[in-house]
Task: inverse folding
């Protein structure tokens, strides 16, 4: 069973430096443990400030880990120096939330996609062919490579970002709210693209989102974060429909359903739950 | 670059600088006279003849001095530019990119250097080593380098936080490569602008030193010419003219070129964000001249707001781009109308038309736009302002950017009430505290005294709601009021809007993209697409049997209630 594990996050805590001279660091992630298996999507859900994005950045090596360790394919990858970390870039990739700032506005799409290839020493002719394959894989027109990011809509830009992540055939992609800046109809299509790519390539996703419905749609398993701690983990259907932890229940009841009757019911349930919690003195 | 060549001032400046450069390079070909060969017998010769511009106090040819002086000036200025770049640029890049101890030390040294008076440093150096223009310019380059350092450092810091730099790092790019490909291009433009200014300053400083007699001896220079002509100011004042003129022209050209560069490069490839609306001012109103006013009274006279055939357009190139194309809708008293659509559907523009808060360049026309019994297209700006403050309330999308960070929250609530309702200060204060308590803030006193940055986003939205209902409006316009909030906070804020709406029997126009929010709070819905309303219906009917294909597509793309993905228990074989 342990052999299946591609990514293991083991008791990881992250501190942010305090503001001001000699200020105490501020702990934003409290000893979180989590694993992602090969070819699996683990949804990481929580509200702003829950630490979900920080966990993703720790996996990417963009923030240092204070305690605990992160293992990728059995190898410890937390605390690597920059050179060792770079070697890992063919294995772990990222798709960020904001498709407007995650692409360099001054570079053409082809240059953006070819850049990671050049780093790994792929010659130019093969890189160009690969760029065409990638554009095709994310269903963008073949001439998209010649254009600048600003000529594309939000959904198309996110496809470019996905293509960049796929460039070197990684085994894990950290997706940081990749669809929350998109319109509803675009959102569904981009999520389907993620699933299609996963089924074809067997890539695993650590999928960070604040939206339970999105996470439910794409994840095999879901982990819920609250104030820097992991409060609940389980398979997607269970966590997103019959959660155990009071916070997850609160989250579920707060998400509005696009159906007036069902929503009225959910609202009543939410109020009852809130009243009960207030009585029990648990409260927010 | 093209844009630069379309600017006449830039072309003239560039042209002059090219002439100066060409003169400096071709100096020996332009004059047969020696710039330094003096002859007392030929002092102060008049213009014309052998000496094109005459000779100076010791008989040197003025034209030759001007021509060779260009060489001295340019070489000196070039030394300053190169030295300040060589010192400032790498230091700024490293300090900005890596921060840490190097940044601390370098910034401290830069501040120290900047605090020193440059001219005094130069004078001290020159008195120690004697007259030497090149050395003086070298030192000046060092003195001015902190300015370059600071500019580069701040540009780098601004760009290194961008996600595309993180993405490059995750892609496995080495640091030098990230700097070269992603950071340097951003730094080039501001640095070029600064360099054109440095060029001008260097020429002035150099001329100043030479005028003081501190330039290299036996070398023609513009400053040296000034020095000489100053000696003869009573006998040959025209000698002052030539060096003065070329210095002024050259320095002005540098400054103007810098400005033109800033205009040309400054608005370059900034990431275009479609949602970053220009801050709205009042749109020009173009009353629809041919639009016939409906003579018959509308069927539901309970309508508080009534819009017919609203068109909003923006000038774009030669044509106008319409973002709202003939929208008609009405909101009754006590009704909550949801205006839904995807980005770019024109839903916010429609709402802003009622508020009169369209951007300045927007053009709006409407067959009818009426609030209660007031024709909004006919009233004056001040009347509209009064209406906004007292009878129409507004809740924006971004709570934080709609509170002024430099005033306490209490002040921002009290002022509108005093102005619109004529309350006294204590009265308004009591009312504000009461409202803060009403919108569910537990410690109204504390929030009243707080500044916006001291409260959370959800709290800020409550404050804005308190402000919007403070004047007891008949109509509340809410533009994506919960989009920036967490779902648990969103649920509470929607509850609050619903309670206030029922308590005061307000009409609410709610702009949103979220059908869950619509289902939660709205009585009826209008679905917008490409500036038109494609379907309008009571909320139950719309969700139960959507009639328009687009509405159906939107509802179908909702993920809510869709089956969850299966857990990955039976492993799908090997990977890849």
Result:
């Amino acid at each position: 069973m342990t052999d299946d594990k591609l990514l293991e996050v083991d008791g990881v805590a992250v501190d942010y430096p305090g503001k001001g001279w000699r200020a105490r660091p501020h702990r934003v992630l409290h000893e979180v443990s989590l694993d992602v298996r090969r070819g699996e999507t683990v949804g990481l859900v929580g509200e702003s400030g829950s630490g979900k994005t920080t966990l993703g950045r720790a996996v990417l090596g963009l923030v240092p880990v204070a305690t605990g360790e992160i293992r990728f394919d059995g190898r410890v990858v937390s605390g690597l120096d920059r050179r060792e970390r770079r070697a890992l870039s063919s294995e772990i990739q990222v798709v960020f939330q904001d498709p407007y700032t995650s692409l360099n506005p001054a570079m053409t799409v082809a240059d953006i996609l070819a850049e990671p290839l050049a780093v790994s020493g792929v010659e130019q002719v093969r890189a160009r062919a690969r760029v065409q394959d990638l554009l095709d894989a994310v269903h963008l027109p073949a001439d998209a490579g010649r254009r600048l990011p600003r000529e594309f809509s939000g959904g198309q830009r996110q496809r470019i970002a996905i293509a960049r992540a796929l460039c070197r055939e990684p085994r894990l992609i950290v997706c940081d709210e990749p669809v929350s800046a998109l319109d509803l109809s675009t959102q569904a299509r981009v999520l389907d693209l993620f699933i299609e790519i996963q089924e074809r390539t067997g890539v695993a996703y650590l999928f960070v989102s604040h939206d339970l419905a999105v996470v439910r749609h794409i994840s095999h398993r879901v982990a819920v974060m609250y104030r820097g701690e992991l409060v609940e983990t389980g398979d997607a259907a269970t966590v997103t429909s019959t959660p155990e932890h009071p916070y997850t229940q609160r989250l579920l009841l707060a998400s509005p359903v696009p159906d007036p009757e069902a929503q009225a019911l959910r609202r009543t349930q939410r109020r009852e739950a809130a009243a009960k919690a207030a009585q029990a003195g648990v409260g927010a | 670059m093209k844009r630069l060549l379309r600017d006449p001032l830039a072309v003239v400046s560039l042209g002059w600088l090219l002439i100066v450069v060409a003169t400096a390079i071709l100096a020996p070909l332009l004059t047969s006279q020696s710039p330094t060969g003096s002859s007392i017998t030929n002092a102060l010769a008049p213009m014309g003849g052998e000496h094109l511009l005459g000779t100076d106090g010791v008989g040197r040819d003025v034209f030759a001095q001007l021509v060779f002086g260009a060489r001295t000036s340019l070489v000196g200025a070039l030394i300053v530019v190169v030295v300040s770049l060589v010192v400032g640029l790498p230091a700024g890049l490293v300090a900005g990119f890596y921060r840490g101890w190097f940044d601390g030390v370098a910034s401290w040294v830069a501040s120290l250097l900047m605090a020193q008076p440059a001219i005094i440093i130069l004078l001290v150096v020159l008195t120690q080593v004697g007259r030497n223009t090149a050395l003086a310019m070298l030192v000046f380059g060092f003195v001015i380098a902190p300015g370059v350092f600071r500019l580069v450092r701040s540009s780098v810091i601004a760009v290194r936080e961008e996600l595309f730099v993180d993405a490059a790092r995750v892609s496995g790019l080495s640091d030098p490569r990230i700097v070269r490909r992603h950071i340097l291009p951003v730094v080039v433009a501001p640095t070029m602008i600064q360099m054109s200014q440095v060029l001008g300053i260097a020429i002035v400083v150099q001329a100043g030193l030479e005028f003081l007699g501190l330039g290299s001896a036996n070398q023609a220079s513009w400053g040296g010419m000034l020095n000489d002509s100053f000696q003869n100011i009573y006998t040959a004042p025209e000698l002052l003219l030539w060096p003065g003129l070329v210095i002024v022209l050259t320095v002005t050209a540098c400054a103007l070129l810098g400005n033109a560069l800033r205009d040309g490069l400054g608005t370059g490839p900034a990431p275009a964000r479609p949602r970053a609306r220009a801050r709205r001012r009042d749109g020009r109103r173009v009353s629809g001249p041919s639009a016939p006013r409906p003579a018959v009274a509308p069927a539901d006279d309970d309508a508080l707001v009534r819009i017919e055939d609203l068109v909003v357009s923006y000038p774009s190139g030669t044509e106008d781009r319409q973002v709202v194309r003939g929208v008609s809708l009405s909101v009754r008293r006590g009704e909550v109308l949801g205006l839904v659509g995807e980005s770019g559907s024109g839903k916010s523009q429609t709402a802003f038309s009622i508020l009169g808060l369209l951007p300045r360049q927007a053009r709006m026309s409407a067959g009818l736009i009426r609030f209660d019994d007031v024709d909004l297209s006919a009233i004056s700006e001040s009347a509209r302002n009064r209406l906004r403050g007292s009878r129409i309330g507004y809740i924006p999308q971004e709570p934080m950017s709609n509170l002024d960070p430099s005033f306490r929250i209490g002040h921002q609530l009290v002022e509108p009430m005093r102005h619109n309702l004529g309350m006294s200060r204590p009265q308004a204060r009591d009312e504000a505290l009461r409202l803060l308590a009403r919108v569910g803030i537990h410690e109204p006193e504390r929030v009243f005294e707080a500044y916006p940055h001291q409260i959370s986003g959800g709290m800020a939205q409550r404050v804005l709601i308190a402000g919007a209902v403070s004047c007891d409006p008949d109509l509340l316009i809410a533009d994506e009021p919960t989009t920036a909030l967490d779902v648990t906070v969103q649920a509470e804020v929607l509850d609050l809007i619903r309670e206030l709406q029922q308590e005061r029997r307000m009409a609410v126009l709610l702009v949103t993209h979220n059908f869950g929010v619509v289902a939660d709070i709205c009585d009826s819905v209008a679905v917008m697409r490409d500036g038109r309303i494609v379907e309008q219906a009571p909320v139950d009917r719309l969700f139960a049997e959507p009639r328009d294909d687009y509405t159906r597509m939107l509802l179908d793309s909702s993920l809510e209630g869709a089956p969850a993905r299966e857990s990955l228990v039976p492993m799908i074989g090997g990977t890849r």
Q: What stands out?
A: Chain A touches chain B through 88 residues (CB under 8 Å). Chain A has ten helices and ten strands. The radius of gyration of chain A is 20 Å.
